[in-house]
Amino acid sequence: MTEKVENIAEIRIFLRELKKHSSYDFCDYSDSSIMRRVSKILNDNKIDMDQLITRIRTDSEFVENVVQDITVNTTEFFRDPWMWKELYKNYLPSLKNKKIINIWHAGCSSGQEVYSNLILLNELGLLDKSRVVATDINNEMLKIARTGVYNAKYNKTFDDNIRDVLECGEMSADVSVEKYFDISEDDGTIRIKSFLRKIPVFKYHDLVNGDIDSIKFDIIFCRNVLIYFNTSLQTRILQKFHKKLVNRGMLILGNHEGVNGFYRAKFSKDGPVYIKNSAYTFQF
Amino acid sequence: MEINGKKYKAVVIGGSAGSFSVVSKILSKMSPDFPLPVIVCMHRLKHVRSGLVEGLNLKSKIKVVEPCDKDKIEGNKVYLAPSNYHLFIEFDNTFSLSTESVHNHSRPAIDYTFSSAAYTYRDKVLGIILTGANKDGANGLKDIHDKNGTTIVQDPASCDIDTMTKAALNLFEPDYILTPEKIAEYLNQLAS
Amino acid sequence: MARFISKTVPTLSSFERGLGLGLKDVRELSAFMSDVLGIPYDHMPVSFFKRRLTNVFAKNNIRNVEHFKELLTSGDIKENIYHDFSVSITEMFRDPGFWRYLRSLLQNLSPGKTFTVWFPDASSGEEVFSFLILIAELNMLDRIKVICQHPSSRITEDIRKGILRNKNAEVNANNYIRIEGNGNFKDYYSLQDNIFVLNTYLLQNVETVTGHFLNTAINEPAGLIMFRNKMIYYDKEVSEKGIKTLTGKLSPGGLIAIGGKEKMPESTMSSFKCINEKERVFKKHGFDISWNNGN
Description:
The complex is a heterotrimer of chains A (284), B (192) and C (295). Chain A has two domains: 2-71, no CATH class; 81-276, Rossmann fold, CATH 3.40.50.150. Chain A has ten helices and ten strands. Chain A has helices spanning 2-21, 32-45, 49-58, 60-71, 81-91, 112-123, 139-147, 155-166, 194-197, 231-244, and strands spanning 101-106, 130-136, 149-151, 181-183, 189-192, 201-204, 217-222, 245-253, 267-270, 273-276. The termini of chain A are far apart. Helices cover 31% and strands 22% of the residues of chain B. In chain B, α3 packs parallel to α4. In chain B, β7 and β8 form a beta hairpin. Chain B has helices at residues 20-29, 52-59, 110-121, 138-146, 163-171, 180-191; strands at 2-3, 6-7, 10-15, 37-42, 64-65, 77-80, 86-89, 95-98, 125-129, 150-154, 176-178. The model of chain B has no long low-confidence stretch (mean pLDDT 92). With 295 residues, chain C is of the alpha/beta class. In chain C, α3 crosses α5. Classes of the chains: A alpha/beta (284), B alpha/beta (192), C alpha/beta (295). Chains in contact: A-C, B-C. Chains B and C meet through β8, α3 and α4 of B and α3 of C.
């Protein structure tokens, strides 16, 4: 018992140090998932907590690695089905008259959400005009995203989510999983079919300091990434998103994230989506 | 709440437009922890959808609300029938609303609220009719009386207009004929 | 305290006596009616069911429940039940504030867009005709298709012909003044044999569908659904089912209006944003960027 309490206290000290020496603020997230990730860092580097804190203070490259390890975003296909259903039925169809649809997944991790969205675009017949860029600071994750091969350990959730979402559409009540995935009999892995895999451009990008393409986007996904940043950095990133969206473009955040501060007034919430510069106007 | 061996479930009060001051007087004198729901059906101008609740809340020590359709009926609350709807009490202890045609030129009609209270609560309801220039409410109060509920008619001598109270007195003999002060006293005595 | 008099045999006023039906009788009969007629009579507030049934009995000279069941099974009386059970709307421009708000919304529509407005439970013409007058004054008659639906063919026929049978001319005229329209209410109708008949030109884009909204869906998505004071006649379960059915027919970003004292069933709220708390107008998530894209 006492050891665990000490652990939590130690982790808090570590998170405060990390905040001082990086652009990240994990102080409000000293929950079990961060505990798990920190334990993994200690194990992988074969160091103890004191040594970890010392290295945070002195080694900026190490800080970068630690941040990457902590922000590794586990995700899954069609995570939060409600959000994807809303996109499918009520938001993505509104893009049908565009010549080109530009989409940016900021913090795409291993790419499941990128492919989830591509599946919906394909069901809606919008795949051909979709241009997708997906970025992350973790090169390992980007590698997985590019190959599009996933361990299907979470088979049940995977199957439930995908059916739940696709069956809400009118034209595609009967979509088979094989339409989009090759499922390996040997090792249970699933691989995204190449017609989807070839569409997104996955690349390294630092949300805080990096520059992104000069084009403007119709949709920006940034799910469960902002939570790791402190308020001033959140505002800076939101500013970037605002600049990179077309007028009435859509910003899609994680379920527990929101637009606060200065940019609150520059977006309007509509269902699961934040719309740029949209004082509510009535339309059918 | 029990009196004379009887457990009450609700108090229903009816009055026409002029009864506002009487209702607020009664509510202002009632104990803030009065345990029963108090359901008030007052004739009111349908184009004035708000204001009445606010006015009563200024005086009342018990919270006054306008129920929505299907709302649960809770104790220690005053419910005011919303304008331009009839208000009914259902068996599952919820309100139901209706836009059926006016009754006695009124919507809400006191008869409807009272009758449904009689039917749902049977002898476990206390019905009170106040000053008014219309006979609405008399039949409904008689329904409460016929189901062995308790009935109070405001003393016609204390009414601005006594049409409503006299119509009730012509139909049956109520349990009590009381002035507004005495009505509040009687209710508080129930609660104590 | 002693009672003044001893109580006698209960004699409820005719209104609540409800044909002398007990709770069990109501459950049985309403279930039977639902089976035969395909409308969820068994999901209505009990007091309401009894009142309406009393009305059906009175209008059709029905002697008792057995007689009624007989007529029901023989099928002669279906239309009459659909007609006499439903509650006609008693006034035009009910809640003038709502109509003023609706006008402000319609005024901000992008020009040229055409769309459909659905009245899934048009129990008489008042709401529909109010809406038609409103859009006539906005010069939008030719842009809006209006679909009115009700199980009773007599009711849908009256609406198609512009007929109002309730005589509330004074209330209607007063409400019209309150919406601050830019015309003269008398110019929108004529009296034929003392019956209100809406001018034909207002009805040019009105279609009627005979059937209950839970069983018969319209083919096209609607931009606006007028569903005011309809859920009050059903229980939570059917209200929820109803809203879900209607939501399925609402365009992304479309609106639904419910009654001033009605609540949206909680389980359906994740599909909507309330855009006017007082007038009870809800917007379905989503929008149609294709015709509102200024850039």
